[in-house]
Amino acid sequence: MTDTDESSQFDEESYPSDGSLDYDSEDQDMEDSQFWEEDEEMEPSSDNFGAMSHSEAIQVDHTALAASSQRVLEPEDLLKGQAADVARVSELTALEPWRAELLLWKDDWKVDHVITKYLEQGEKVLREAGMLSDDPVEFVISKPRPDFMCFLCCDEDKATSFKLACGHECCTECYSHYLRGKIQENGSLDITCPMNCKEIVPKPAVMLLTDKKLQAKYQSTLCTRYVRAHNDMKWCPAPDCGKAVKANISVTDESVIPIAECNCHQQFCLACNIDEDHLPCPCKVAARWLEKLRDESETMTWMSVNTKPCPKCTNPIEKNGGCNHINCTQCGNHFCWVCLGDWAKHGSSNYQCNMYSPEQAEEDQKSVNAKREQLDRYMFFYTRYNNHRDSAKLDEKTYKNITKTMETLQKEGKMTWLESRFLPSSFEILRQSRQTLLWTYAFAFFLDAQPEREIFLKNQEDLELHTEGLSELFEYKWDRIPGAKVNFLDKCSYLKSRRQKLVEHVMKGMEERNWKFLN
Amino acid sequence: MNALPKRISKETERLVKEPVPGISAAPHDDNLRYFDVTIDGPTSSPYEGGTFKLELFLPEDYPMVPPKVRFLTKIYHPNIDRLGRICLDVLKSNWSPALQIRTILLSIQALLGAPNPDDPLANDVAQKWKEDEKTAIQTARDWTKEYAKA
């Protein structure tokens, strides 16, 4: 058997597996109660997590999820959360903690549901969750005795042995070996007794029979399942981050866009799979946009550059030879590539499109326009959306220069480091405004004509104008920066409030279900 | 290779002493983890009257991982492919170290008696089995006669 899977989401350090996180240990109980008290002081809520640890970076207001409505959870918070749930169920059902944990695991950590179900149905629930007996159990390794033979390795002279309530006893070496295999395959509280009876091997037994490395892997699998069981929790998608974010608001409410920000600054939506801040687009609209982008963007761009629509049937046509006489294979129309007019009118020896007639042109144009307009409309929004994406990438370059500028200002005695701190925070505002702006184009693309749309477009225009204004300030040479500080601060506070207004306007419409989208 | 685990020698001993009717399994002299196996086709199945040869190997980690088993005799069966590989849950995800060579071979014998075309390994055979069971069973009989006669 190979070593523990290194691709595990957690390294050993993040899971102290010396037993201190085991709910049986006294230390942990103490920690837990402290942890609860803290929680209640901070905010009287029923969840298990302490206040979010704020990073030192400038906190930018999020309209959807203010810092108070999300918590970043470190691996140890997740373990504490599980322990607290277990303690609660254990207390109210008078079951041992390990039994409470199995019940919670079985029913996706729905604490109240588990308690009610057990109180109503009793032992039956225990059977279903893999506890075949409700006799008190002690998880201990038995001393060697002469009459014992391990049913797995058939050795009779092994030192120690272990069994669960089901009574299937094998030597500790075989038991550990068996558990190692199962844990490496991401097994957790679904690992059954090696005899394949339905008895589940509970956590205390696993802790007793495995080494630290495996325990860490086991805990991480438990946490993964724990996060997955909660629809208000999500793992931070940033590579190797290993933290989760929990929303303190309902994420199933469609009028909320729960954008979370991890301590590592990664932003992601808790309600959908988009791993960025997609405000002000509702999840569904954002998803539609991304789908359209995937389906069409490349083709569309290429087509708009390389093809012309057939004046009769509007099918896009690529000119693949030198001759201007085009024969549409779709509708059989013959036309001129240059003027898009009927080829017959060009005569037999006429390659000069000198037969401009306003009436004809208008008529031709009309039929093309309808279909062309659709494409143009898409291209309009797509170009702007994409432009902000590109600008955002270029802005990142600017960001790298900020530190240099700050150093220069300090060296030249123009500004202290502290005084120039407004630069990185202004950049954060710029980044965020762009992020919002690009998504406003996706929103506007699907927006049907309605009075509120005009307000939205005005908001968008204003945001865009001032975002570009701020972006320009960042192009200043370092010696102009001190003089422009006021401009930076003005722009930032304006942008901040404008962005807020725009998002709030959209959100208000969503709450009142006012927005009408195109199909 | 390490010394042969006691579990394996016990299983082998019992397979020889109390053989399962219709099944034989004997280890190679030079590799005690490698077994020559024969399974008789179950009565009232298309494989009746045939004797099928298989090979069985116990990997280093046995019994924590299942034995590797493969048909050597050509057989027409929806859950056994051209190379003789077998699609059977207890040989994969449902393996438990409490299972033994004996129980695995019994399961394979049972699989011959109850082909499951809804969970196929050999797609063409399974499709035939579903579309025209009569012909498929006849083919299985013919193959048994042709390839599995002792």
TrEMBL record, chain A:
> Which Gene Ontology cellular-component terms appear in the entry?
cytoplasm; ubiquitin ligase complex
Keyword tags: Metal-binding, Repeat, Transferase, Ubl conjugation pathway, Zinc, Zinc-finger
Main enzyme class: transferase
Q: Where is this region: Disordered?
A: 1-50
- This protein is called what? RBR-type E3 ubiquitin transferase
Keyword Zinc found:
yes
Q: Which reaction does it catalyse?
A: [E2 ubiquitin-conjugating enzyme]-S-ubiquitinyl-L-cysteine + [acceptor protein]-L-lysine = [E2 ubiquitin-conjugating enzyme]-L-cysteine + [acceptor protein]-N(6)-ubiquitinyl-L-lysine
Ranges of Acidic residues composition bias in the record: 1-44
Could you tell me which InterPro entries the record lists for this protein?
Ariadne, E3_UB_ligase_RBR, IBR_dom, TRIAD_supradom, Znf_RING, Znf_RING/FYVE/PHD
Specify the RING-type domain's residue ranges.
146-357, 150-195
**Organism the protein comes from:** Yarrowia lipolytica (strain CLIB 122 / E 150)
- Its GO biological process terms? protein ubiquitination; ubiquitin-dependent protein catabolic process
TrEMBL record, chain B:
Top enzyme class, one word, equals: transferase
Q: What is its EC number?
A: 2.3.2.23
Q: Name one GO cellular component term.
A: nucleus
Q: Name one GO biological process term.
A: protein K63-linked ubiquitination
Query: What residues make up the catalytic site?
Result: C87 (glycyl thioester intermediate)
| PROSITE patterns xref list | UBC_1 (PS00183), UBC_2 (PS50127)
Q: Which InterPro entries match?
A: UBC, UBQ-conjugating_AS, UBQ-conjugating_enzyme/RWD
Q: Which residues form the UBC core domain?
A: 3-149
Recall the GO molecular function terms of this protein's record: ATP binding; ubiquitin conjugating enzyme activity
The lineage's top-level taxon is Eukaryota
Q: Which UniProt keywords apply?
A: ATP-binding, Nucleotide-binding, Transferase, Ubl conjugation pathway
Similarity section? Belongs to the ubiquitin-conjugating enzyme family.
Q: What is this protein called?
A: E2 ubiquitin-conjugating enzyme
What is the organism of origin for this protein?
Answer: Yarrowia lipolytica (strain CLIB 122 / E 150)
